[in-house]
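Researcher: Please translate sequence to C-alpha cells.
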Amino acid sequence: AEIAMSQTEMICPHKDTVLAISDYEKGKSFLDGKSASVDSALYYMKSARDRFYKISCWEQSVKMSYNIAVLYQKLKESDKADEEIFKAQKLAAGKLSDDRRWKGKIDFYLAEKNFKSKNYEEAEKYLKNSKNIFNNSEAWKDYVAACRFLAQLYLYKQEYSKMEESIDEAYAITSEKLKSDPNLIKSIMQLY
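Model: Translation complete:
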C-alpha cells in the first residue's frame, strides 16, 4: 500500500477545507527527501482526517485514514494500522457510494493484509470487490493492479486458468483504457 498523494482528489463540497488541506500538505511534506519523518506525517494526517470529518468531507476523511494506516504499517504498528483501516472501512461503508475509488482502495489494502497472512480466500474476496469498485469508478490503473494481484493469488492457489484470465483482463484494460502503458504491460508480462 502506498500513501495517497493526489491533490486532485481533495475536492470537497464544503468551503472550509483550507486548514484540512494545509495539514494534509504538511503531512505529505514530511514524507519527502532525506529528512522524512513518519511521526510528523502521522500527526498532520490525523489532523487533516479530523478536520475533514468535522466538516463532513467523508471521502477525504476516508483517504486520510487510509494514509494513516499505511504510515502505521511503515512503523510496523499493525494493530494501529488495522484500527485505522477498519475506521476508514466503516466510514466508507456508511457515507460513500459504491462507485467511490476509496472503497476499492480499502478493500485492496485488506486483500494485501489477508494475503500476507496466507488467508487467501479472504484476500480473493477483497480483491474481487476492489476490482468491481475500480471498474465502477473507472480507476483503471487500480483495476489493473487488482487483476495483477488476483493473478498472483491464483498462482499461489495453483489455479492457473484463473491466473491466466486475470492476466488477460489486466492486459486488455491496459491496452484499451490506459493506452498500452509500457510499465504496466511490463509488470503484467512478468506474470506469464
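Researcher: Any highlights?
Model: Confidence is low (pLDDT under 50) at residues 5-10.
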